[in-house]
Write a structure and sequence with these properties.
By secondary structure, the protein is mostly beta strands. It has no helices and eleven strands.
Length: 123
């Protein structure tokens, strides 16, 4: 059973926008905290944004004012709207779910992960 599936990554020129989607399945996700992480080649996976079931949000400093995380609980969907994209945003972006009601920024606190979607912003 597929638990989380990311989609809508792609190649976008610097300054452009993308909206990533994450579809999730399973009753436990009804009250779970969701997050987005990203990983560039040769680098550690890093926190991007998190959102609780009640839609409290928190962002990494390097995306504040540019990215927006949102969710639609009725549709079992989480989104990451990415604006003003930069070459350093190039990475595989992962959707994740945590069994908590709090905002979570650490990788180890997430229990389930999608397979990732590639975002490329050429220099």
């Amino acid at each position: 059973q597929v638990q989380l599936v990311e989609s809508r990554g792609g190649l976008v020129q610097a300054g452009g926008s993308l909206r990533l989607s994450c579809a999730y399945a399973g009753r436990t996700f009804l009250s779970s905290t969701m997050g987005w992480f990203r990983q560039a080649p040769g680098k550690e996976r890093e926190f991007v944004a998190t959102i609780t079931w009640s839609e409290d949000t928190y962002y990494a400093d390097f995306v504040k004012g540019r990215f927006i995380i949102s969710r639609d609980n009725a549709k079992n969907m989480v989104y990451l709207q990415m604006n003003s994209l930069r070459p350093e945003d190039t990475a595989v972006y992962y959707c994740a779910a945590s069994g908590t009601g709090s905002m979570v920024v650490t990788r180890s606190r997430y229990d389930y992960w999608g397979q990732g979607t590639q975002v490329t912003v050429p220099s």
